[in-house]
Amino acid sequence: MGQDNANEQPPPPPPTFWQRLAERVRNTAGSGLAFALIPLLILGYLGWYYYGAEHLDQTLYGVKLENIELTPQPPWIHSNLKEQVYRENGLSEVSLLEPEATATIAHAFDANTWIKSTNQVRKMSGGKVVVDVTYRRPVAMVFQSPPPGTGNGKGLCYPVDEEGSLLPTDEFSPSEVLNYFMIFAENAAPSDTAFRDPRILEALQLVRLLEPQRESLQLACIHVQPDAIDQQLGGFNSWIMYITTQDKREIIWGHAPSRETQDEMLVEEKVARMRAWLQKAPGSTTETVLDLRQRLGLGQRLISTPGR
């Protein structure tokens, strides 16, 4: 009897769910066709799960250009900024169901040269997206002389905002360039996306002060030159601002606002004296240059204007 027990086989395991399903399909009419369709059904489900659902999600919840409500563009921007950002950053591939959708949209607008900051992105009903941004505003053109020996005497004009950030040059026609202060500083050149030259940044301080009066006083250019007296005394990085008007009158402004020396006029007094002097009719006074500094012996014109 012990021999018989040794030869006994263990009972087979119970059939699995899939084995029972396959047996039932085989015993059903048309089972061959149905059994052949099972893999197709499984593949179809998996394809829908991984691809079809994503496509439907994109169709129903994707970011659409017409559904983006952007802060109205200022008149100095001529291109369609909303469309430009949408196309260049692939926002059509972003689903509003994604948790990071608003951050992705904000980053796309932040990357545009014209956008100073993206303040808020809100998802609204119906797939609408409201984007609140602050635009950069051009305040000046920085002139760059042509490289020596190139034979090009025109030079370049770089539009900048009040912080020195570069703006797209192709947005400005030759006539529009004249609507802004022109800044001259020898060998001035931008780095990356902005001017970091202290001469340009100091000139922009003066631009911010005088820009509201630029048109009424017909102010045209700001020239930045080293402070000759300061250099003689061993000083460094000190600059004098010279202003020229559209009718070729000249004002020696002195140091940039907030950088005045102790014996230099206050900003308010400089502005008042300049306004009174410019409001006189040209030729009504023998003065051709107005010096807004109090130091003695600095009335001599120290500027050498490019192209003059």
Give the count of helical stretches: 9
Question: What percentage of residues falls in helices of 4 or more residues?
Answer: 25-40%
Total count of strands: 10
Question: Order of SSEs, N→C?
Answer: HHHEHHEEEEHEHEHEEHE
Separation, N- and C-terminal Cα atoms = 125 Å
Low confidence ranges: 296-308
Structural class computed from helices and strand pairing: alpha/beta
Quick check: average pLDDT? Answer: 82
Shape field: elongated
Count up the domains.
2
Strand content: 15-25%
How much is the radius of gyration in Å? 36 Å
Largest sheet, if any? 7 strands, mixed
Query: Spatial order of the strands in the main sheet?
Result: 5-4-6-7-8-9-10
Question: What does this entry look like structurally?
Answer:
With 308 residues, the protein is α/β, with parallel strands linked by helices. It folds into two domains: 71 residues, membrane protein fhac (Ubiquitin-like (UB roll)), CATH 3.10.20.310; 154 residues, no CATH class. Helix content is 32%, strand content 19%. The strands form two sheets. It has a seven-stranded mixed beta sheet with strand order 5-4-6-7-8-9-10. A three-stranded mixed beta sheet has the order 1-3-2, covered by helices on one side. Strand 9, helix 9 and strand 10 form a beta-alpha-beta unit. The termini are far apart.
